[in-house]
Each structure stands twice: as structure tokens, then as C-alpha cells.
Amino acid sequence: MKPKVLILIGLIFVILSCNNDDEIPQTEINGEYVGIFERGGNNSNVELTFNNGNWSGESEIIKFPALCNGTYSNSGNVITFENACPWTAEFDWTLILGGEWNYSLNGNSLTLTKTNGDKYTLTKQ
């Protein structure tokens, strides 16, 4: 009977000690990044800054992409952007940084990708 109890206790300990290594804490992406935004073969130089759930950005080409500022949250490898700026109607609003993006952080390299093919390739400064 004792061996079964010890095995059960050991199994419970192993299960409870596991954590999810895929989750990237928000603080890890904090900082200033420079790089490029890509859509459909067109590129633009961009700068993005992340600071504890707030973001701001600029693009070399006006409204390609449309960057301003807002908030973000992340879970696992998905980051969700909320844009806080008002925009006029004369351009493609899918260029506004918002919604869910997949992201990967590898050292100083941050890559953001959207299901429509948009991509940010950034390097931390």
C-alpha cells in the first residue's frame, strides 16, 4: 500500500511542478525596436517602443503601416494590440496596428506576423 501512495504523491508533485515555458512575460519585450514592416512585397522602415503594456510607433512611410500608440497584452505567442489614435478614412485601415498577431522573441529579434501575411521584423536597440 505504501508504494502506491508514494507513487501517487510523486505523480501529483510532478504534475503540479510543470509550468508552461511557451508563455513569454510581457516585460521581456519592453524596449525600443527598429526594423521593417512588410506587406505584399512592399517594405517600410519602422520604430516600435514597448513599455509595460503600452506601445508607440512611427513609420518612414506615412500610414504604411499606420502607427501611433496604444496598449498591448500578450499570452503565449500571441500579442493583441489596441490602437488609441483617431484615423482619417483615406487609407486602408487594415494597415493600423491592432488586433491579434503571432510573435516570437529570439534574443534581440522580435518578429510579429499576422494571418494576412503582414510582418514586422524588428531588432531591439
Automatic annotation (TrEMBL):
The keyword Signal applies. Residues 1-20 form the signal peptide. It comes from the Bacteria. Keywords: Signal. This is META domain-containing protein. It comes from Seonamhaeicola sediminis.
